[in-house]
Write a structure and sequence with these properties.
Length: 396
Amino acid sequence: MPVAFPAIAIPKRLLMGPGPSEVDPRVYRAMTQPVVGYLDGVFLQAMDEIHAMLRAVFSTQNVATFPLSGTGSAGMEASLINFIEPGDEVAVVVGGVFAARMCEMVGRCGGKLLRIDHRPGTTADPDQVRQAVRGKNLKVLAVVHSETSTGVLQPLEPLKEIAQEAGALLVVDTVSSLAGVPVQVDGWGVDVCYSGSQKCLACPPGLAPITVGERAREVLRGRQKPVQSWYLDLSMIEKYWGQERRYHHTPPVSMLYALHEALRIVLEEGLEAVWARHQQCHRAFVQGVEALGLRMFVADPAARACTVNTVHVPDGVDDARVRGHLTERFGIEIATGIGDLRGKIWRVGLMGRTATPELVVLLLNALESALTANGFACPRGAGVAAAEKMFATQPQ
Ligand SMILES: Cc1ncc(COP(=O)(O)O)c(C=O)c1O
């Protein structure tokens, strides 16, 4: 007996949470192109272009620069397991959930973990990190650039020096920062850097761009034993992305069309212009929420990631009801906190296509409506007025 399931019918949402974020219509269109074989000349050409565009976005000359088939966590796992062997000392700077995930992965591949915690909502103090790694035989220093669970942007330059002093590889997560704020892989001495397709790149989730410098490739070549994950073994994957074109696994062809188009869009606008737009929208959003009487979770403005904006849920206000109002009345999705911050903060993504003055204003309007409906008295129109003033006085 044939069984008829209904086709999926997804309502239109405006994705203003910490990811996935809005997908560009051009990206959706690119994904509908016919699937071809993984060695088709047209496809290989597209791969070369993805490689070139990713190098531009990561600001690197690294030959080993390509997207991994998998989400941001695949990027994270590949960036750790390829370089860590049992017993290797690995330091992870931890200020939130995603850095804690790195620690879990280090443990699973037998690394000797040195966990350097700092208070969520603040950046790590380089002196504390330097002190913690002193005298260690460190193989890797790992850090999250934009900690999506807290909204903190960690300055990387001081950590570069510490990694170099310790003779360790610097591994950096840029899942919620790449193509939203400056990322200078070569300039900052980052050895391994990965990201995800679904945040500032305005692509669906499913790919994890990664770039691996020469020092790290040497470590990979010098391993005692093969990487325990066959699928994420970078030494094999790079042979498909490099000149040899050696088959490793069937690439997710349609997702690669998507990434190709997403990268084209970013580079057409220009990286500087993209960063300036994210910065401007973040500033206006902060002015707006503060004018509504809300408080940012990251107290120090200089420590805030402009891509993931975190706001305290005010006392007496029900986090879920406010988010429900935003979704039901306006189709807008924002997120609550994760881990210990669940129900305590809102996470607002101004990433890629949602980092626009129009959407910042729309969200502030919707937020005012949701807060008022939930018993929080905010000055009428103040949020939008503050943001609009900011957009008018500090145009991009
Ligand atoms: C900073 C950071 N790292 C890693 C990840 C994991 O990525 P994914 O959920 O795509 O596997 C995320 C996801 O939000 C993230 O924000």
